[in-house]
Amino acid sequence: MAVSRLGVGRELYVTTSMLQIQESTIFVFLPKDLYVGLLKSLVFGITIAIIGCATGMRATNGARGVGEATRTAVRTSITMIVVLNYVLTGILFQ
Amino acid sequence: MLRDFLTYDEIWFVLFPLYVQSTKNPGNHVSRSILFPIFGWGTGDDQWSWWRVWPIYGTATYVGFYDRKFALWPIWNSEANYLDTASPSSEWSIWPIYGQIEQGCTAQPLDSLASLCLGMERRDLLLDGRRPWPLVRIQRNGSGRPYNYTRFIPLYSHYDGEEIDSQVFLWPIFWNRSEAVPDFERDSFFFAPFYYHSRTRRLVDSKPAREQEWKLGGTSMLWPLVRDREETDGRRELDTLWPIPWPFVEGFRENWLPIFSIFTHEADGRGAHSNRAFLDLFRNEANETESRWSLPILGGHRSLADGRGEWSLLLGLLRWSSGPDGSKLLMPAIPGPGFPLSNPTPRIPDPNDIGVHARRRSHDRPDEGRHPRDPRNVTQSAGASVHLLFETARRLPRARPRLTPVIDQMYAGGVLSIPIVVLVGLFTGMVLCLQTGLELQKLGQQDLVGRIVAAAMCREMGPFVTGIILSAAVGSAMAAEMGTMAVSEELTALDVMTVDTTRFLVLPRVIALALVAPILTLFADLVGIVGAASWR
Questions:
Q1: What residues of A are in contact with residue B24 (Cβ under 8 Å)?
Q2: Domain span at residue A35?
Q3: Which of B42, B387, B425, B505 stands the most exposed, by the fewest C-beta atoms within 10 Å?
């Protein structure tokens, strides 16, 4: 996209994007942009698993209840992801 | 060999410290050291070079930026910095006898009479480490703003400038400082950590008459006994027992002080004040309309501005009011969690139901028969999630989860989601690139698109997209699986067999998803960034 539509050279694109990722290191080995993203996705993974299991374990009322639990799980976990994303961004990027 | 280490693009270590070679790509700067840090040299694009035989002699030049030399480190040191800016600086020093800094036209040429060493900036002191900490420093007669600065750390230091006059003895024990800006003056004295005293004057424009008026304020502290703080707008705080040896601590007073305080007085400068003592047990508060005091359990009194008063004794059992029109008894006010207490009828199990024991779980449920959107359901399911989180976390330190279920879950949740994550990541990166790129192109800044796409993918879109996909694909599957197990009473059966369901069902799933989510995020980031570059 960058090369074909915008006329940005491939070299330039690769150099600038790698530069961006390498910048602002806090830990020596992981660039901040990357490890913050990975930390976020770790939190998301735990959230999804916990919410899925918790709503599933509380299901009652046969097949209908299972459907209801699934729906609740997806709804709740997406909401939590959106909210946690904001909160984590606020904390980690100050 | 290390690539992309710290700020270098490439570093070779051969039997470190025997030989080190580092490369920085913009400008192709190559540095080499033998027996690091003793011998070293570096060359670049014929503007940048350095060499050193540490600690005997060394030099570093970057044409147009800096020129630095040292001999017998740290004794002789000479530098010229910021050559590319409007105010280049040059400095030299013979440690510990003499040093001098000059900076451009705006700067303060700096005479040091008996200075052991000089240092202007933290950068020099901490990071470059070219010189030790300047213990003595004398600085006079700047040509711009006049100020004098004398420092014999740790015995004495004196700064005399336009707005601040500060003296420190036996740093950091005594200091005495006066500040004056056009509408504000403050004199403060601190004898760490025991005594602090300051006087503040603020010039206030009284709006109606447009006349100026000095308002006084001040703060005193005798640690740890008393702190008294009076603002220029009339607010006042007086605290007995002040446990922190500094009188201005943000948020401490509101949140922590009641634990320590014996007596607290507070006034807001507009007529309201409050006194509290002994862990807030005795309280006396007043504002424009009423004043009241209270003792725990025994009772309290409230008097209103129109002359009426109310008494309440023994937790509000005995209340009466008095006033100009006589006194009368009031209804007792019952404290506590509401009255009458709700008393739910216990559920009686039907003895004819043979499944009564096995269905213990469903009988414990108070939420049966509620409307699905009942708010109590929401709070209870949130509570269940948090409870499960803590249960899982509690089992985590001693968890020896069998590997097979974890790997099963990682396969089901992670490997099978790779195609969709890759596809969504690709299109997210492409659309991000296109949208920002087209906007940047209007400004002629399309070269920045790589940075923006990389930052946005790594920080936001990668984790977010992965999270949404995982919750839709994997979270729903987990919920359905566990739900089916719950409905067909497999969970109850496991409970009966004293199998820990949290450990055997929940923990592997949580671990698997926690491992798989960052990996999928990496896939999404990579595919997004690369795809944004190359696809049409």
A1: none
A2: 25-93
A3: B387
